[in-house]
Amino acid sequence: MTQSRFFSSRSATRSSADSFSRGLVGYAFAAAATLTLAGLLVFFWAPQDADQGMRQKIFYLHVPLSIAALCGFIAGGVMAIQYLRTRDSSWDLRSYVAIHLSLIFGVAALITGAIWAKTAWGVWWEWKEPTLVSFLIVFLLYAVYQPMRFAIDDPERQARSAAVYAIICGAFVPLNFMAVRLATSLVHPRVLGGAGEMPAEMRVSFYTSLIGMGLLWMALWKFELTAKSVSMRLGKLRAELIS
Amino acid sequence: MTAAIATLAALPIAADTGGGYVAAAYAVFVALLLVYIGIMAAKLVRLQRGLGDLQERTRKPGDDA
Q1: Number of neighbouring beta carbons within 10 Å of residue A90
Q2: Considering the entire predicted model, what is its pTM?
Q3: Touching check for B18 and chain A: CB below 8 Å?
Q4: For an engineered disulfide with A58, which of A9, A20, A116, B61 has Cβ 3.0 to 4.6 Å away?
Q5: What residue of A is the nearest CA neighbor of B35?
Q6: B42 at A interface, C-beta within 8 A
Q7: Residues of chain A neighbouring B19 (CB-CB closer than 8 A)
Q8: SS3 B63
Q9: Is the Cβ of B60 closer than 8 Å to some Cβ of chain A?
Q10: Over the stretch A202-215, which tens digit does the pLDDT of each residue have?
């Protein structure tokens, strides 16, 4: 029922544990450098928005966070497919960590979005706005993932059910995105492919922030995977020693 | 360092421009990141302790000599 029981029940091979940490330092430094550059571009190079002024700077944080979270959810679904295909428990772990990390990014996206909504629209939340509500629905779907997962005792069944759930939710994310795109938005701005094109400085700053956020997601994903796999190996060694 | 502080002070983050909200949004992100890193650091300390414990158990008598 607990996380430690779940992790100690899986056999992590040395090769998979080593592959988790491969590139971790590179991703961490690349994320730090890109996010620093993005901060400099956002605050010292990108022009202020004609309508929102300084408030619009939240966009460079909120949108990359939301995109990283949604892509992470989809990646979790793809890794779950890999688990069902191969029955390799390292894919289950990858999927679990991807969804866990995307939930944290989702929390940050929701909070920064609420702050932006308050300063731009005067309200913390707008229930009539499809983009906000759809993101909340996706977030709540994934918030159920962990309680559902750890409610199942049998490790094999737990991994299988979690994979099926992750695949269904992962497929829901792009469908939901398209449905929202087709709907008429009330107030939420369109960032990618919208009618209102951003100036080049804004676009470059935005894409730098997006790349930085993606690299940060990758670095944290590898970091958590490495920590969890080492923890599992340690637990296994301890069990062997005791037995 | 002084130049960096002077540059930061020149940023238009007054309340009337919405700068307070911008600072709050970025602070939330940094705070969440720090909490996450703190939790992971605590986990690594636990792992280190577990590893030390395992080393103690596996140490053969006479290894210290």
Answers
A1: 22
A2: 0.83
A3: yes
A4: A116
A5: A104
A6: no
A7: 54
A8: coil
A9: no
A10: 999 999 999 999 99
